[in-house]
Amino acid sequence: TKLGKTVLQENPDRIDLDYLMRRFPKRIQEDTGIIDAAPEEQIDKALAQLHSTVRDELMERIKKLPSDAFERLVLDLLLKMGYGGSQLEAGELTGGSGDEGIDAVIRQDPLGLDTIYLQAKRWTKNRVSRPEVQKFVGALAAKKAKKGVFITTGEFTDSARKYVKELSETIVLVGGKDLAQLMYEYGLGVSVVRTLEIKRVDTDYFSDLSGEGE
Questions:
Q1: What is the pLDDT of residues 108-154, one digit of tens each?
Q2: For the segment 52-69, what is each residue's pLDDT rounded down to a tens digit?
Q3: What is the distance between the alpha carbons of residues 34 and 77, in angstroms, rounded to a whole number?
Q4: Does the structure show a pLDDT above 80 at 38?
Q5: Which residues, 6 or more positions from 173, have their beta carbon under 8 angstroms from its beta carbon?
Q6: Rounded Cα–Cα distance for residues 19 and 15 (Å)
Q7: CB–CB of 161/173 below 8 Å?
Q8: How far apart, in whole angstroms, are the C-alpha atoms of residue 133 and residue 135?
Q9: Is residue 28 within 8 Å of 35, Cβ to Cβ?
């Protein structure tokens, strides 16, 4: 473009971020919202971008898992979130032939009086619709169960979500985006590479030191 040729004429040896920030400050400010932001706001914005990138990478890796590994991941996540308490054998995979639509169970108490049934489904189609959720509800009914969690790599249709709200049973639907977010929040499949400590001046300390707080 004409502007591109002008830029080359002005700076033929090197075009880098410093040059672009001097040449197009308003454009960069509009695109990033960082230039005039306070330091803490810049950090928050950068962290949000990092979080989004990690969640996207999690989803890419999850979608490549074989079915049995995905079922293991779902069970690990629920246990990581605290379901099953401190029981060593609180969770169990049940997937495979004859699983009747139930891939895992979590016993909330040692006697198994309160049990959560899980279905983990890798989904490559558009969205998980109501009929798929109804099959899961039917599998729960066969177990005389009242609690179930349906977790998928895809997303649920509005009709599917509306359907579970009308049920007497407690059914939770977790789509791919929520799954990645939960893994991020509870530290499953991710590791901390750096801890950021932000400090500010303690005005109370200086007030006490100078006697202003008395």
A1: 777 666 889 999 988 877 789 999 999 999 999 988 888 999 999 99
A2: 999 999 999 999 999 899
A3: 35
A4: no
A5: 128, 133, 150, 156, 160, 161, 164
A6: 6
A7: yes
A8: 5
A9: yes
